[in-house]
Design a protein that fits this description.
mainly alpha; elongated; disordered N terminus
Length: 224
Amino acid sequence: MMTPLQGIVAAQVNSPTITQSKFEKSTEHKANRAKSVNAENLTFQRLTDVTKAILHHAFWLAEQKNKLSLQDYKKLLQEQGWQGEEKKYLKIAAAFQKFSPQDIAQVEPRTIYQLAENSKKYQKVINRLLDLSIINQESVRGLIKKQRTSKTARYEKPSIWRRTKNGGRYCQIPPIHEPNEQTGVILQRMMDEEGLSAQNIVAEAIALRQAYKAGQLVRTEDHN
């Protein structure tokens, strides 16, 4: 039978063991957490290395195309088994020619391909990157989202104007959808009967409507 004193002594003896057990568990948890953090950092580092490798290859390929003859360039692609695959890397080199691989290393590869494949669409985004002190995935995605939002707001106001390659502009009437197709039927009949183009008839109709709105034409009742 254990006396009260023996019970106290036993508890005191076992106390360090309990404390040690908690310490060991805490140490093991910290070690596992450190391993997890290191694994995460290693994963992101590898992704960064992939992006830099893509940029290095794209710039190298563009350099080879510029300095080699067409025949030697095609031979290089054939030897490496890269025929048809080089185009997307040349697009990357063209889109990011003002950057170094290190500049955009923190942008994930898929986004790099997305911007390069649609460089005209995302040219403003690429240009804005030049103004950033730190370029990473978050900042690029933010610029893409901002451009999409801006376009949505702009498209809320319909516009008939389109730009030509030489900087001029022309108007383009959107498709007219009607259940009875009345406008299209009448326009086609006028074109067939009068030998006029759709543009001429529309221009004449708009001029007449404008004159009517300005009070230059008056509607009269037919009494016959």
